[in-house]
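Hi P.,

Sorry for the delay on this. The queue was packed all week, but I finally got your sequence through. Input first:
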Amino acid sequence: MKFHKVRTYKSAEALDRADQLAWKIASVAADPVRIEDPVAEMIGNRIIDNAAVAAASIARHPVTTARGQAEAHPRQMGATIFGLPANQHYSPEWAAWANGVAVRELDFHDTFLAADYSHPGDNIPPVLAVAQHCGSSGEDLLRGLAAAYEIQVDLVKGICLHEHKIDHIAHLGPSAAAGIGALLGLSTETIYQAVQQALHVTTTTRQSRKGEISSWKAYAPAFAGKMAIEAVDRVMRREGAPSPAYEGEDGFIAWLLGGPKAEYTVPLPQKGELKRAILDTYTKEHSAEYQSQALIDLARRMGPKIGNLAGIESIVIHTSHHTHYVIGTGANDPQKMDPKASRETLDHSIMYIFAVALEDGGWHHEKSYAPERAGRPETIELWHKITTVEDPEWTLRYHSHDPKLKAFGGRVVVTLKGGSTISDEIAVADAHPLGARPFKRPDYVRKFRTLAEGVISVAEQDRFIAAVERLPSLRAGELSELTFAVEPARLGATPLLGIFDWQPETQTSARRAARS
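Then the structure:
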């Protein structure tokens, strides 16, 4: 890897294109290195993982809404949409939009945490949609996704967004654009412009994940993927983008990140170096914010030791700065302690999550978030006894570049009413590559079948898994097999009508729905 210094330059200063971060990203994406077997295997795992969580969310309201919008944009070539027949194709940016929301809705797919954090699997819907639309092969898709994961992970290692309250999709737009460029074999110049365009239009604030969290939390990554597709299309038509997007005097770093004097170091592969970053990422066993994964496993382990939970006086979770301030009491969000909070907000409350995991001995992607579950008096009582504190040691481990030291968990101290304490700690989740039960292909398949049960027929599950197993050898035109169809009754309520559905005969019903 080569480490690149990135800072702001005044307009009067000379900054060659070859010295700009966007050009360096584009050069990596355009470098046609071979894809190692472990990387190809992991890409297949993550395609399965995305389909699993999309199956579980297929009938949820945000997903049906996004799918309804996408269905208004059919295309003869086009791309597939989760839940719909594989022979029905839609405009790729809208297919990516619908599939991106389905993948992100339950916050249950892969993750990478470093200077910032991300869900690199969010790259798959836009890159796959373009691959399907353009008649690409499995080999092409592997090349595109390896590049997208590489750029996403490297940006997350080098540039912290959340300390400046910028949402993490600002790294996703550029990585998806780079992945699409690699998929299509575009020139460095074209990818360079697309990366800058995508960065420019996908920089948003962290209010998406703060306070009263709405369904936009699921839509935001889908938006970044959709914008990446549009950016690539635009620059393929020889249009440019704001340059230099990262280093400009009025650009990303100067005004949205650390300011004119800030300097960042971004690692990127050198020419000819293999793209292996996907192997540094990890998925979720539990449908919750990644920082809660290890703590759910710890709650499962501590529950039997504690015994009667009514005897608890207090619980203190000693953890990293990020966990404390984003999903802990350090966030100072009263909504995180509110039993009437949205699913998205409860997902970002480690106090709620730890309480339920203690009581239930585990976590369920639907039952654990149900309003009646959150409203149990004994759960509320236990929940409100839990606080978090930042521990410098766990913060240091959270940011460590040594994979053996890096940790996302914490130490939990339970004080009983008699004054005695029970404590335990965990560094990484059981499913993490260094955890007690690292996820491998059979685990991804099991997760898919578990979440697909009662949603996707067994025959369709088998067909999809078989297609993923053949991923490296899929020929041009066969990538439409990398989806799943369900019975129409499984797709949830009919989406409300919007602008894209507007017809004279629908005006009255649409207006009525909008007013309600």
